[in-house]
Structures are given as structure tokens and as C-alpha cells.
Design brief:
4-stranded antiparallel β-sheet, single chain, binds adenosine-5'-triphosphate, 222 residues, ABC_transporter-like_ATP-bd, alpha/beta, Rossmann fold, 2 domains
């Protein structure tokens, strides 16, 4: 599995000056089981890049270039057909559903009936949270929410993962434990991953970190 971005340029449709380019000719390939980290100042276009890869392009932007997942162009696919999992800093668990139901909604429609709850419960068991299955997500801690959000993302069997500051709401002690656990889970599944962060400590050791904004003259091996 690999995620490739080829000659991506992103333009702001409403820029007041001539310099309407947010991302200038960015190309990178992220291989299976590796993490590319993007670090850079606020407003430099990191989240916009992730949203374009995931298929949620704001009408305020347009782009040129290609996005390929496993060598297949996905730029014209709807977000739900892209097989890309995305995790934001604000976990988006549904507050009106229980922890278990939040996991069940991620399962493919081909899994029916009681099996859906069974799989959700097994998933909770893997993260030692089975006792919280029927709680509202409003009644669990930030760290527990973070783990449930990751498992929900993985249940959808993505082919690539995008992480937009997923650790920023966690306190320091939880943060490093959760980070290590998350990178292990992603590696186990051989998923290509792009991580956006402000914190140097989040960058996984031995992997590529790219300082953003992107400058065309840089070369990169990810
Ligand atoms: N919908 C929008 N319409 C117009 N401009 C936008 C829109 N969303 C973001 N921007 C602008 O585009 C630029 C890039 O924003 P983006 O959120 O991608 O940056 P970022 O690097 O992820 O920042 P942060 O680290 O603060 O999340 C910023 O200048 C921002 O103000």
C-alpha cells in the first residue's frame, strides 16, 4: 500500500493579493507502514492538504495535481469511496450513541445483525475498554475517547491514514503512551500515514519529518 501526492498545488480562490498559492508543486510518496510527519506554523496549509487528500475540498480552494492510493488515482472519488481514514484533534465520536454503537457505525454494511455488536465488543476488548461499551461517549475520558476513535477508524479498514494533531488534547503522560500505541497499531496494519503536528516529540523516530510550508526546491524521500 502507498499514498502518493504528485505535483499538488493548492490555490485560494479569494486571495486578496496575487500570491494566491497555498501549496506549490508538492510531491511525495508514503510507503506502507511508514509515517510522514508535517510540522509547521499555524496557517501554512497542513490541514488543507489533509482535507484535499481525504476529498473534502473547501469551495474556497482549488488544486491541480494528482493523489494516488496504491497507484490508483483517487482525486475524483467521493470521500467515502477513498479508503482513507482521518483522525482530527477533536475526536468526532457521536455523542448520542454509546461507545459500542460508535464502533458499530464504522463497520461495512456487509456485516449484519448481532455480529456487528460482537465485533465492536471484541474491538473494545483489544483496548481493555469492554466495560465501557454501553456508556455514552460523554461519560468517558479524553484518553479513552482517543483510543475508541482510533479503533473506529481502523474498523473501516482504511488503506491510508491521515492524523491531524491527534495528540494535542491529551495530557503529557497519556500523550506518549497513546502515541506509541497508535504508531504500533498503524505499523501492524502496514498503513501509510501522514501526521500533522506542532510538537517535535510527536515525530516517530526513524521516519521522515518535513518542515512546512513546502518549498519546491526541497527534495524528499519518504
Ligand atoms: N475555508 C477557508 N477559506 C479561506 N481560507 C481558509 C479556509 N480554511 C483555511 N483557510 C486559510 O488557509 C490557510 C491554511 O489553513 P490550514 O488550516 O490548512 O493551516 P494549518 O497549517 O493546518 O494551520 P493550523 O496548524 O493552525 O491548523 C490559512 O491562512 C487559513 O486562514
Amino acid at each position: 500500500m502507498s499514498l502518493t501526492i504528485s505535483h499538488l498545488s493548492v490555490f485560494n480562490n479569494h486571495s486578496e493579493n496575487d500570491n494566491n498559492i497555498l501549496i506549490d508543486d508538492f510531491s511525495v510518496s508514503v510507503d506502507k507502514g511508514t509515517v510522514l510527519t508535517l510540522m509547521g506554523p499555524s496557517g501554512s496549509g497542513k490541514s488543507t492538504l489533509l482535507s484535499i487528500i481525504a476529498g473534502f475540498v473547501s469551495p474556497d480552494f482549488h488544486y491541480t495535481g494528482e493523489i494516488l492510493l496504491n497507484q490508483k488515482r483517487i482525486g475524483s472519488e467521493k470521500p467515502e469511496n477513498r479508503n482513507i481514514g482521518i483522525l482530527f484533534q477533536d475526536d468526532l465520536l457521536f455523542p448520542h450513541l454509546s461507545v459500542c454503537e460508535n464502533l458499530m457505525v464504522a463497520l461495512p454494511n456487509s456485516i449484519k445483525g448481532k455480529l456487528r455488536r460482537e465485533i465492536a465488543l471484541q474491538t473494545l476488548q483489544q483496548i481493555n475498554l469492554q466495560h465501557l461499551a454501553d456508556r455514552s461517549t460523554l461519560q468517558i475520558s479524553g484518553g479513552q475517547k482517543a483510543r475508541v476513535s482510533v479503533m473506529r477508524l481502523l474498523l473501516a479498514e482504511p488503506h491510508a491514514v491521515l492524523l491531524d494533531e491527534p495528540f494535542s488534547k491529551l495530557d503529557k503522560s497519556l500523550r506518549s503512551e497513546f502515541r506509541d500505541w497508535l504508531f504500533t497499531e498503524l505499523k501492524k496494519r502496514n498503513l501509510p500515514t501522514i501526521l500533522v503536528t506542532h510538537d517535535n516529540e510527536d515525530c516517530p523516530i526513524g521516519q521522515t519529518t518535513l518542515h512546512w510550508p513546502w518549498h519546491k526546491e526541497e527534495t524528499l524521500d519518504a
